[in-house]
Amino acid sequence: MKKLLHSLILALLAISAPAVSFSPLQIGLNSPFHTGPGGDELQLVSPETTIIGLRLNLPVAFNHDVVGLDVGLFSYADNFSGIRLNLQSWTHKTVRGVDVSLISMGTDYTELDGIQIAGLGVTAKLRGLQAGLVSYAATLRGLQIGLWSTAWDLSGLQIGLANFSDSSHGLQIGLVNRAETLHGLQIGLLNIVPNSSFPYLPLLRASF
Fold it and tell me: Is the dihedral of CA 65, 122, 56, 70 positive or negative?
């Protein structure tokens, strides 16, 4: 009787529980010219399957949600959490963790919490560290390092040969620093705040 009751309970739970589709492994052999999910995917599991574990992009795999280690050539995801090591990565919505790519791109809605290291790094909102040859964030809360660094809404520290910001709350260090409005410090060969009484100052500028 107890076994029958136990079986009935399990059956009811199975019927009422939402279907969860995930896989610990994904291997993608899609063409790099394939721009997103759709058509015939040459990969172990479908794009709708959440990957919790390892994804190998050889050269491309498509999944909406990935958690874990993502390694290969071209990486695409709506949401990613974990460690990413790829030639190129693209994220639609969120990144949580570490993204190391030659090129790391996002959309106007992409939010990154963690670390982005890329030759070219682009994201909408970043909380953490962004480092690369060319670094761009529409909104940045943290540290940005690059030869050419741009953070239109900056709260934190910006270091580069050339630093650009629309609104800077913090510190800019570089050969050339430019901020439309400054609430903090600029340290560099040339410090530019166009809307100030003295738009161009050498070495040091402070505004609070």
Answer: negative
Q: Does the pLDDT of residue 12 top 70, yes or no?
A: no
**CA–CA distance, 23 with 57 (Å, rounded to integer):** 15
* 57-90 burial code (b ≥16 CB/10 A, e <16): bebbbbbbbbbbebebbbbbbbbbbbebebebbb
Q: Which two tokens stand for residue 46?
A: 């479908």
For 144-176, write each residue's pLDDT tens digit.
999 999 999 999 999 999 999 999 999 999 999
The model carries a pTM of 0.82
Domain boundaries, the chain: 107-208
Are 119 and 105 in contact by the 8 Å Cβ rule? The answer is no
Six-digit token string for 61: 């795999």
CA distance 150 to 130: 11
Per DSSP, 45 falls in state S
Distance, CA of 45 to CA of 28 (rounded, Å): 9
Gap between the Cα atoms of 109 and 105, Å rounded: 11
